[in-house]
Amino acid sequence: MMKPSLARSIFAYVAAIVLITVMSIGFSSYYISSNKLKEQTEQHLTEIVSNAVNHTDLYLKNYERAHLSLFTNSSVKKFLDDPPTGDYEYYQFTDNLMDNVINPLFIKSPEIMTVYLADYNDHWVYYENPALKPIVDPVPAFTMEELDKETDALGNMTIISNSVFKESNNQFITLARKIHGEVFNEFKGILAIEIKADEFATLWKGINLGPSGFFAIVDNDGRIVYHPDKQRIGTTVNKALMAKIEGNDLKSFKDSSFGEERMVVSSKSAYTGWNLMVSIPTADINRPLSSIRYSSFWVGGLTLLLALLLSYRFGRNITKPIQILKNGMRQTEKGNWVKIPQLQTKNELDELIQRYNLMVVSLSELMDTLYRTELSKKDAELERQKAELQSLQLQINPHFLYNTLENIIVYAVIQQSTEITEIVDAIATMFRYSVQTHIEETAIVNELKHVLNYMTIMKHRVGREFELDVRIPPEFFLKKTARLTLQPLIENIFQHGFADGIEEHHYIRLDAWMKDDDLIIVLEDNGVGMTPEHLASLNKQLSTNQLAEAKLHKGAGNSGGIGMMNVHRRIQLVFGEQYGLSIASELGVGTRIYIRFPNIGT
């Protein structure tokens, strides 16, 4: 019977772990939540600003097509080259221009408020959207020299955040450019179209910034081009805020220029040169933290209470299956292959028991087959069956399984259950792979997976990681090898090559190459090595092409020879007498095992 103190220890450890966790959450949740909330808010605002900049640029670029339709029109070019001189001719010309060119543009782009065309000889014509009528008796706010200076010298479209007319009661965005006449040798005038700044608000509908959050656009001079508060449009932001906007592209900063402290994220448009910013009060951002504080306290208390109630049952659920497995392994150690009853838990421990029972059945059937065919089969077939049985028995070493499960019990007491899952899953996978008695050949990659499961278990047995240096080229991974070849040899290195204990300088290296159209796998370690006498004895056994079982009672090669001899002979039984192991070793330096296989597989 398992000592009851183990369950009490599990109860105490679980309670201590949960209590420490709850206290840590209580002290750190506010700080962590505050930082995480700020990061999420900043990321959210950054994405909003980036999308808004892109949408604004695309919105303004659409008006380049309106410009193109105007400055390529022959009537517009005629106005620049040879404007009508008489009043009637001037009226007739501009009226035709309105009917044939401007009105279709207003119909196609109803957001356009005005169209302004002027040449360098002080001739100008102005058209307003008949559906909007924004200005009565317009008077230009710019002289031609000022407007010429504002626009791009190469004829590219220039964005001006003011109207070209003085009497405008609306905040306009002016899109202007220098244009040619019929001859492209010089610019003849300036074309400008205007849209209301309020149109930008339609781009950002559906984005929720809270009751006090807003978008704003600031040009290069610090003048506000757009703001939800129309009284701020056209005003200039202070120098401190402008410096932050210019120096923190897509990075958040705090500012109090608009009254209360706010988090601001801005980005400069490469197309317009404007700075689009989004602003949210920090009070709105911090408001959820108080609820996080209270919820952490109550959840932590309930979690502690629930953990105390469940820890006892948790201890029994862990220790009872392990005890059953340990007793089964003790019977296996004595040679009694007794099936263990299933737990019906549908977890890794239940799968491990299932694989163990399958192993017991397979071994029993294999032993019966060997007994029935002993008198009728040829010597080679009998030796093959014995090799398979010995391979399974050596791979599922009862001492190894017993010690491993003891480690699982210790981990259940002093650590969380993730280590138990890792160890049990590795053992179950090794069982599953080991009991596949109908498979003689397998790919190198499957052998490497089997080795990795073994190394997972060894990590917990020795108490630290041991990295295998695998240098096998990936193109060899699907080459054929005999099943259960690499893991017994690596286990042999841990038992005999590192007999004095595993040190930091120890290594195990796996490599492979082609030689004489055969595949050579090399397993190398820097362990204790072998004496010349022991090496000669072991190589002599390998050359006899017989299993190590015949030597067990003669004292020759008992230190690590049995596993290598069985691997060697099984390779020969699968692929032929010309394949198998050869060994090179030097005392105090290390050992190399050369494994030869035929070149089979892709």
UniProtKB/TrEMBL annotation:
The protein's name: histidine kinase
SMART domains (alphabetical): HAMP (SM00304), HATPase_c (SM00387)
Upper classification of the organism: Bacteria, Bacillati, Bacillota, Bacilli, Bacillales
Enzyme class label: transferase
InterPro entries: Bact_2-comp_sensor_kinase, dCache_1, HAMP_dom, HATPase_C_sf, HATPase_dom, Sig_transdc_His_kin-like_C, Sig_transdc_His_kin_internal
Natural source organism: Paenibacillus allorhizoplanae
Catalysed reactions, semicolon-separated: ATP + protein L-histidine = ADP + protein N-phospho-L-histidine
Record keywords, A-Z: ATP-binding, Cell membrane, Kinase, Membrane, Nucleotide-binding, Phosphoprotein, Transferase, Transmembrane, Transmembrane helix, Two-component regulatory system
Subcellular location: Cell membrane
Membrane topology: Multi-pass membrane protein
The UniProt record lists the keyword Membrane: yes
EC nos: 2.7.13.3
Transmembrane segments: 12-32, 297-315
